[in-house]
Specification:
With 75 residues, the chain is an all-alpha fold. It has helices at 7-17, 22-33, 41-74. Helix 1 (7-17) runs antiparallel to helix 2. It is elongated, with a radius of gyration of 19 Å.
């Protein structure tokens, strides 16, 4: 775990926790090292959209299972 004063370590751990791949993490930490924090934002937005799409797909699968369970229970 990164120390509170270890900005790059905190950034890396947060990106790992968010499920970012190693290439994206490296790119973001490179920008941070250069002080180009604003360049990280598009990568965060892109990963967020990916996670949101996955969440929606999972929700659709859950809805299908719920409907199937409802139909079975109704029979």
């Amino acid at each position: 775990m990164a120390e509170a004063s270890d900005t790059l370590g905190i950034l890396r751990q947060n990106l790992l926790d968010a499920g970012c791949d190693e290439q994206s993490i490296q790119r973001c930490t490179d920008f941070a090292r250069k002080g180009e924090w604003q360049k990280i934002t598009p990568y965060l937005a892109e990963h967020r959209m990916l996670l949101l799409e996955q969440a929606h797909a999972s929700q659709k699968q859950i809805d299908c299972l719920d409907f199937l369970a409802y139909r079975i229970h109704k029979e």
